Amino acid sequence: MAVGPSTLAAVLHPVKGVRIGIASAGIKKPGRKDVVVFELAESATVAGVFTKNAFCAAPVTVAKQHLAKTSPRYLLINTGNANAGTGEIGMADANSCCVALAELTGFSAEQVLPFSTGVIGEKLPVEKIVAALPQALADFSEGNWEAAATGIMTTDTRPKATSRQIDWQGQSITITGISKGAGMIKPNMATMLGYVACDAQIDTSLLQEIVSEAAEASFNRITVDGDTSTNDACVLIASGTSGVIVTADSELRALLQAEINAVFLELAHAIVRDGEGATKFVAVKVAGANSVEEALKVAYTVAESPLVKTALFASDPNWGRILAAIGRAGVDQLNVDAIAVHLDDVLIAEKGGRAASYTEAAGAAVMKQEEITISINLNRGDVTETVWTTDFSYDYVKINAEYRS
Amino acid sequence: MAVGPSTLAAVLHPVKGVRIGIASAGIKKPGRKDVVVFELAESATVAGVFTKNAFCAAPVTVAKQHLAKTSPRYLLINTGNANAGTGEIGMADANSCCVALAELTGFSAEQVLPFSTGVIGEKLPVEKIVAALPQALADFSEGNWEAAATGIMTTDTRPKATSRQIDWQGQSITITGISKGAGMIKPNMATMLGYVACDAQIDTSLLQEIVSEAAEASFNRITVDGDTSTNDACVLIASGTSGVIVTADSELRALLQAEINAVFLELAHAIVRDGEGATKFVAVKVAGANSVEEALKVAYTVAESPLVKTALFASDPNWGRILAAIGRAGVDQLNVDAIAVHLDDVLIAEKGGRAASYTEAAGAAVMKQEEITISINLNRGDVTETVWTTDFSYDYVKINAEYRS
Q1: Closest CA to B187 of B234, B232, B150
Q2: Pairs across A and B, CB distance < 8 A
């Protein structure tokens, strides 16, 4: 179950300098492709954003340490096991995987960034992963983006990838990226896993600025169940192979940032559309707020309210639940009479109650759609923020009551 | 569906000076008893706590105004319609009901406190309620507590009431109370509706202290779905008919406070046990915190995590989800290696991962129970707080996708 047609881009342009190999380690199911290795050109720079969950997984800790010390040449990703909540053994296991890949490729273990996703709290099957590495290396190709998007899935029902090209003053930059995630989705720096590469040449500090800005406006604006993962990581690679140099404060940087923001937002939306049990794709837009914090507080309170989410599942324009959620969001001195709430273009509530012009038929017509925008105008400031979410269905309960081993 | 046997007390002692009448106004269903009127003796004092939801319902606003001005003689409660999100018309409707009851009884409208619970956003059927008032007045009796508990139910599957008596230096105080609520439960000052009466003589300011303390430790420590209602109200009555005078800073006050706290906690627990779709009654106890705020932040994050709640529904000791929720609770400088997590007496996690002594069999045995305590020791301070919650089941989705009209 997912909302709308697949958003997988028809063409995933290869990014020169980025080769990908996929292998089957049999972590959870025999034969399932569950290990993905990225190989980066020597000219590549890498930047990333990671979960702020205090119980961050071992590979997240290791990846951050390695990224701070070296220019990474490999990303090693497995699905089926998150290597989270695994204590010191988990740290040793993440390192062992890096060491094994380094030995096979002739680089240092610190030039490998490890990533894991899957069940929390079980020991990483290091031997299985290490045994699969030669198969992954033998598979290296610049054309493997879609296979990689499939290879990192957990409860996702479909792969998530997008791609675009920029032409600028006779030069060209290619951007391609993938993501995964369906549950435990309320990224706090990044999504479960996202990998985006471009072939421009960008120094690491600028690349970090670009990835932080793009993640803030995309992965940090989505929620499926309000649960921030222990393994969130999002990586942006600039392979440098196009010969196009991007510098800070340049016109090209602004253009590239806009395109990378768009890629990130597409990948973030793809995660929400594939949210566990999702039947609706819902934007919650809060305008007229005094601050970003205030707008997000209201937007997330509405987006995560179980009562609003079950009403969305039922296609019930139960605006009273939306008002109740706004009212408990903790906004100081909120003047409820000033607030207006729309479902798409239908004004449903104003002056503290149902709008005079509102009819159930008009509200019900919007709620029947698969894609809905709930617009809330607080009419007290000029800040607008939007978050994206899903409804709450029987299948969410089913998936999460049954998913583990 | 509700957890455990009914907790309705076998005997609900009448409170002298408090008479109750029940009537059928046919607000949602013909014949359903849906109007409850309390009549209080002239000697009675009344104090209350009310929702902090900014979209508080019209009757809450009116009740607070009346309580500030007079000594109330009547409480008028209806179920089936919350008179919330109804704007100025809702205020006028709440007042009209008070005026009608005042005319029938010869008191002023300000001596009536109105309360409503039920669907949000629909106009209160004032005429139906007013037409039912004579029937309620004719029904006045001190023995109607159980009928009142039934008369204020909405999606509740069973009435909630408790009663106890204190003997002190040859004198006796009776305390009896009722509550209702099953969904939209995360009280922020009080539950959906709670009414507790005793027959001691207590001045209003002391009574307000007593009700605030009791509500803080009971109704303000429960959550079913994290949604704070627009209509929360909890009222404590001291009818004064026993002749026992309670004064501030007295030994009797301490004794009475403890008993009233216990009554409130029983009523609050009864709401959680009857939480929408609930199959488990779960205490989340956080010890070793640096502050009450910190302890509650962790406790509520765990108690409201959809992933923890679906694991509880599945009886799955998925301690990884508990750790992930603790990790995203936003506690500064949390040392995850210091944290210990128990399910009842079973140590499941320590040092950032699964406890060495833990076995799935031991965890599964606890999770199969209907009543479970999740104990989290942060080991960084000496504050302990407990909140109570339920699991998240198919039936929660069903009830809230289907409930409205």
Answers
A1: B232
A2: 210
- The answer to which of A148-152, B35-39, B245-249 has the lowest mean pLDDT is B245-249
Task: Report chain B residues whose CB lies below 8 A from the CB of A329.
Answer: 54
Binding site, residues of B? 154, 180, 191, 276, 400, 405
pLDDT given for residue B405 in this prediction: 39
pLDDT, tens digit, for every residue of A267-325?
888 888 888 888 999 999 999 999 999 999 999 999 999 989 999 999 999 888 899 89
Phi and psi angles of residue A285, each rounded to the nearest 5 degrees, phi first: -110, 120
pLDDT tens, residue by residue, B368-393: 999 999 999 999 999 999 999 999 99
Q: Which CATH number fits domain B18-273: 3.40.50.720, 3.30.2310.20, 1.10.510.40, 3.60.70.12?
A: 3.60.70.12
Task: Flag whether residue B342 sits within 8 Å of chain A, measured between CB atoms.
Answer: no
Chain B residues with CB inside 8 Å of A121's CB?
318-320, 323, 353-354
pLDDT(A115) > 60? yes
Is-catalytic flag, A191? yes
Name the residue among B184, B203, B237 with its Cα closest to residue B51. B184
Q: Give catalytic residues of B, as residue numbers.
A: 191
Cα dist. A350→A232, A289, A306 in Å?
Answer: 39, 16, 23
Distances in whole angstroms, Cα of residue A172 to Cα of each of A45, A79, A245, B290: 18, 33, 11, 55
CATH architecture of B281-389: Roll (3.10)
Domain segments of chain A: what residues? 18-273, 281-389
A336 to chain B nearest CA, in Å?
A: 6
How high is the ipTM of this complex?
A: 0.79
